[in-house]
Design goal:
- The protein is an alpha/beta fold and about 425 residues long.
- The protein has a single domain, classed as TIM Barrel (Alpha-Beta Barrel).
- It is built from 15 helices and 14 strands.
- The strands form 4 sheets. An 8-stranded parallel sheet has the order 12-10-8-7-4-3-2-13. A two-stranded antiparallel ribbon has the order 1-14. A two-stranded antiparallel ribbon has the order 5-6.
- Helix 2 packs across helix 15, helix 7 runs parallel beside helix 8 and helix 8 runs parallel beside helix 10.
- The longest helix has 25 residues.
- The chain is globular, with a radius of gyration of 23 Å.
Amino acid sequence: MRRGPRRLIRATALTLALALTTTGCAAAQAGIPEPVEPTRLVGAPVALDAREVYLDQRIAAMSIEQKVAALIMVHVPGTDPGRIRALVDAHGFAGVIVMGDNVGGPAATVSALTRALSSEPGLPVLTAIDQEGGDVRRLREDDAASARTLRGAPPAAAEQAFRERSALVAEAGVLINFGIVADVTPDRSSFIRSRTLGETPAAAAERVAAAVRGEAGNALSTLKHFPGHGASPDDSHVSIPQSSISIDEWRSTHAVPFRAGIEAGAPLVMMGHLEFSQISDLPASLSPVWIDLLRDELGFDGVIVTDDMLMLQRSRVADYADPVQNAVRALAAGNDLLLYVLPGDPGTVGIDPGGLVAELAAAVADGRLDEAALDDSLHRVLGLRRDASGESGPFIDCGAKCWGESPRAIDRVPEGDDESVAG
């Protein structure tokens, strides 16, 4: 069962409380003086977490249409920020992926574009880019070592390369790098082979974790393509790559680099359009089985983003020809963010942005999508956006109770001394 972030926070708080209780008892038995309890104002409520207040208030104020739109990231071709922002603002989309056709020059030029995309400073648009280095790079001045070199170099080289790479991403004003390939394969003919960071699961894991550490502080790292593109030699841009490996084989091979990247602190994981027939009969991007494994077995509690949803249609598999059905399935499976690399005219690939939002809202209304689950996804996605703003405070002024203050407060007493608090 998937657990939302707030349930995880509550569970962590309970564990911490129990641990502190046990520690206090042991200290008393050993004759160690107990620490002085913090004080609070008489009659004052406990101060609330400003970030959580903002997110809860924001989500509560959103319509169903606004909620589903805020779980979509799009690409709009060209270097005109006004055109890109117009589409984002018209529908309230979560973010924009910067592709090659958006890059009109060096990183500083791209920064002028990305800075112009957000209409609300307190909740900026998420910007992302595919900046792996080597063959896959949108910012052409990226000359840091790529996977071809890093596979044979110590993990420290991967950390340094991704530190340099993510600094360039940050200079371009981009928040997220879809840049860390956590796939691994022994097959030299595999489509993904040239982009992998290690020859073996253990070697890849070391370099993936190092890459995450290198990007920290500059860009939000993304691990791709879960559950492991290296399990099949095929290209997911034009097909649904197939694998018949067992769950135990997956755990001992393809899962290893992803686990390492998650433990290193990667805040995003990208789901691949990959079908492992012995584990799920759906592509991982549409499979609740794979989302559950990622959440519960690998312990990932960050944002799950799909690979480009249009790739499902390009596979020419009849079951994935309907873009609306694909979107409903992807959200129902537990993805937090749907990625659409749209052409100049979305209609040429069967996408009407406004119509897609309306259809997803209808899926909530008729029960195909669970609103509470969408709220958990919104909490994660809006959390990234709020953190990027650098701002704090509630969405709606909720008065003294947000800050643990009260007009009834008349004195200061030790925390927990309830006998002196007026009823």
